[in-house]
Structure formats: C-alpha cells, structure tokens
Design brief:
Strand order of the largest sheet: 1-8-3-6
Number of helices: 4
Largest sheet: 4 strands, antiparallel
Oligomer: single chain
Length: 127
C-alpha cells in the first residue's frame, strides 16, 4: 500500500518536471554546490564517486541537498552513461511539500532513508 502512495506522490511531480538529456561524463553537480534541483532518472546511470555507488532508471536523487541545514550538495553526481533526467526545481519541490501532504510524507521518507533501495524508487543520502 505504501509503495502505491509513494508512486502516486512521485507521479504528482510529473507536470512540474522537465526532461534534460545529459551525455556520459556530464557533471550534474559537485560536493559543495548549492542545491537547485531534484532528479528522477528516466534512462542511463548516474554515479556518485565519493560513495562508489550509482543509480539507474526510476531512482530519485538530489533531495538531501535541498533539505540539508547548510544547503549544499554532499556528493558529486556524474552521468555514467548518456542519461535522460526529469528535473524539478528546489523551489517547486518545497512548494509542493507544503501544498500536498502525501508528497510531503514521500519526501520525509525519502530524505530520512526510510524507502528501501531495492524498490527502485530512491537511494537515500544522495545529495
């Protein structure tokens, strides 16, 4: 039941997102940068060198920096493949957080690391 609610909450973002193509090797952000977007991978993989991890299609990242106390990215994100990413601005994420309780709960679980990686929805702790 929770998975369906989380999918619905993520689906609610779609009208506010734009699609961005990025070539392999493109640096999306670096540790220490100011956060400006939340990302959903539509195709390709994004690597986080400091963590030795990567994420694939359907996964969300960039949420931690938006809510971090210092408002900075904590890791670097690099396209490991040619990628297509759906993005939404941090300002719109915060607006939706306050307007939509279901989306707010989704974000709280995402940022807190509550959502398991095996579901393919999120990878907690990726700036």
């Amino acid at each position: 039941m929770r998975e369906a609610r989380d999918a619905d909450a993520l689906e609610a973002l779609v009208p506010y997102m734009k699609t961005e193509p990025h070539p392999k090797g493109d640096v999306l952000f670096r540790a220490g940068d100011r956060p400006d977007k939340l990302y959903v991978i539509q195709s390709g993989r994004v690597a986080f060198p400091e963590l030795g991890k990567s994420l694939a299609a359907g996964e969300v990242f960039g949420e931690v920096g938006l809510f971090a106390p210092r408002q900075v990215r904590t890791v670097t994100a690099i396209c490991a493949d040619d990628c297509r990413l759906a993005t939404i601005t941090g300002a719109k994420v915060l607006e939706l957080y306050y307007q939509n309780p279901r989306f707010g709960l989704f974000l709280i679980r995402l940022v807190s690391g509550y959502m398991p990686q095996s579901r393919g929805i999120a990878a907690p702790g990726l700036a």
